[in-house]
Amino acid sequence: MSQEFTMQTDAEGVATITWDTPGKSMNVMSIEGFQQLDALIDAALVDEAVKGIVLTSGKAGSFAGGMDLNVIAKMREDGGDDPAKSIFEGIMQIHTILRKIERAGMDDKNKGGKPIACVLPGTALGIGFEIPLACHRIFAADNAKAKIGLPEIMVGIFPGAGGTTRLSRKLGAMAASPFLLEGKLVDPKKAKSAGLIDEVCEDPLAAAQAWVLAANPADIIKPWDAKGYKMPGGAPYHPAGFMTFVGASAMVHGKTKGVYPAAKAMLSAVYEGALVPFDTALTIEARWFTNVLLNPSSSAMIRSLFINKEALEKGANRPDVPDQKVKKVGVLGAGMMGAGITLVSAMAGIEVVLLDQSLEAAEKGKAYTASYMDKGIARKKATAEKKEAALSLITATDDYARLSGCDLIVEAVFEDPKVKAEVTRKVLEHVGEDCIFATNTSTLPITELAKASNSPEQFIGIHFFSPVEKMMLVEIIKGKETGTRAVAKALDFVRQIRKTPIVVNDARFFYANRCIIPYINEGIRMVAEGVEPALIENAAKLVGMPLGPLQLVDETSIDLGVKIAKATRAAMGDAYPDGAVDEVVFWMADEGRLGRKANAGFYDYDEKGKRQLLWEGLAAKYPVAEAQPSLIEVQHRLLFVQVLEAVRALEEGVLEDIREGDVGAILGWGFAPWSGGPFSWLDILGSAYAAERCDQLTAAYGDRFACPDLLREMGDEGEGFYERFTAPQDAAA
Ligand code: NAD
């Protein structure tokens, strides 16, 4: 058993328990960890020489990063046929340990309680903040980089080790809601002003040790354990509290559309818990937590948004070649994408040469970084020094000679193969032989573009999404001849700018656009069929898509749709399947309804550009049919067109790893995050049912829903994607 916790008692009677997970940069809580902490607390409580206890971390910049997810997997496994029972019991054991800390021997009338303080040298997340919440006083170091909070909701669960109950009782439901419902994280100073922690100081360990010696008995009684406790802001039966919960319930439902089980379960735990004594509230919290952990959506979200996202960021699919960290990047084209790529590179401390056709255009691209930083300064998220540091790394130029010394080029000029080929050739005259050349094209085949280079093994696609500074996914595309060093370079660059990469092979629209275009097209196709546009849009949102297909096409613009349709038709000839879609799109373009940028599209917009209702004029051309499909039918059409494209991408070898398919879908185009991604969604449905649904949809709407052979075979064998394509440890969440 590895030693996670150690205890030392000084001459004055302060027992300092230090948490130091071996081999990890940040502490994570394991089953052994809980057992050791429990045993040390027991020992300290019975030891007459101990007057007070201080819990701290052996890691310099952090207290703890959270729970080792194997804890939950183990609880589930131990349950055999009855995982709910063993998960519930496991959670109740954690409650017992934390409650012991909170009560600190107070229940033993002969002895009285001992003060327990917690010291946060830095970051304290998840269970790493739930443990401090059970202590009597929390001291944090003045460490502006530290993040404190309960981010569980972001990965589809909620704080289930008492954090939900304790924080809502400490702050009141309203004040706790940004931390519980949005997973808001704050630095120590903000944590203090929000009431999450008690003190921020230079030497929190010394302050905590002094405090436990000086504490009064009253200091160690939590408000909810004192007589007459009232929930701040009012409990549900109080008129003010009642209004809070009515509002919160509406807000949660408005935001989650009812598809995220964790948010609803957490709100129920807070509401029901507020009506009963504290210990009963913990039991209620444990029941809801068990319910959420057993929901397939939560497991899929944890797997994609936490485990696999992190694995990809750490280089799960990186070829085994030496470090390729980028020192100096050349960005070609200072338009929308080039300016964004420059900004994120400079913010990561990379030297950037930004080149455009004129110095003026290049300077304009550089100015984007300045205005972005100015906005950050106004919101106190950046400083003048940071702005200067970023700007000092950027050289705006129209002179190719300035690119000399760049070890990576990212090309983001016009989407025209001739222009791209010309700049590629010019660049290669000025950079060293080792330089990797990447293109940010969204539609042109990488293998074709690589022909302009005399070393196609050093040519690759690095496809950013817009806006670059906000979108977390970067799609790396290997051309036929792309070599491993180019892949490693792209991955190391993406890691430097702190984004999440997926690596795919070269094919029309790569992966993300290949799946999202059919979604838009299916929505437009339904308009032509007479499906009520509001039904299409709401069906999409109610199944967890961030934007309905018609809103999405308004955002990306109708003329881009026209351009893509024409190019695809030219490339595919008779096999082109989307004539019905084009009819609507071309007509919208003729009507001048080009989308948000024209203040007119499938939606109306006011003069300030604010989106209004769906455009009524659409019905004159495409009347709404009398018989309307069911909500689920519309939702299945919208989801199946996307996920079948993902399965085809896997079958064709465009995708090499389903983890990338799932993570890429959520981060790249917002595919219903509650599902864990397209492959996770199909696993939740079950392959056999999914194949059957394909047959029904094909019979009703056509071959685009034809069941891929792979899915059919898996359906026949009763196999899931995560069972078939990943190692057992990656399949379980
Ligand atoms: P943009 O029109 O905003 O910018 C292109 C820039 O390239 C302009 O500043 C232009 O002056 C410059 N340029 C053109 N020819 C040049 C040359 N010969 N030498 C130097 N500079 C030249 O376009 P954008 O939206 O930034 O897109 C750029 C690339 O990124 C395209 O390949 C596009 O397909 C791709 N892309 C765009 C998006 C998006 O959402 N806009 C998303 C992903 C990828």
Features:
733 residues, alpha/beta, N-(1-d-carboxylethyl)-l-norvaline Dehydrogenase, domain 2, binds nicotinamide-adenine-dinucleotide, globular, six-stranded mixed β-sheet, single chain, 3 domains, 2-enoyl-CoA Hydratase, Chain A, domain 1, eight-stranded mixed β-sheet, Rossmann fold
Textual characterization of the structure:
The chain is an alpha/beta fold. It has 3 domains: 290 residues, 2-enoyl-CoA Hydratase, Chain A, domain 1, CATH 3.90.226.10; 181 residues, 3-Layer(aba) Sandwich (Rossmann fold), CATH 3.40.50; 175 residues, N-(1-d-carboxylethyl)-l-norvaline Dehydrogenase, domain 2, CATH 1.10.1040.50. Helix content is 50%, strand content 12%. The protein is built from 31 helices and 22 strands. The strands form 5 sheets. The chain has an 8-stranded mixed sheet, with helices on both faces. A 6-stranded mixed sheet has the order 1-2-4-7-9-12, sandwiched between helices. α18 links the parallel β19 and β20. α9 runs antiparallel to α10, α19 crosses α21 and α19 crosses α23. It starts with a strand and ends with a helix. The model has no long low-confidence stretch (mean pLDDT 95). The site of nicotinamide-adenine-dinucleotide has 23 residues, from α13, α16 and β18.
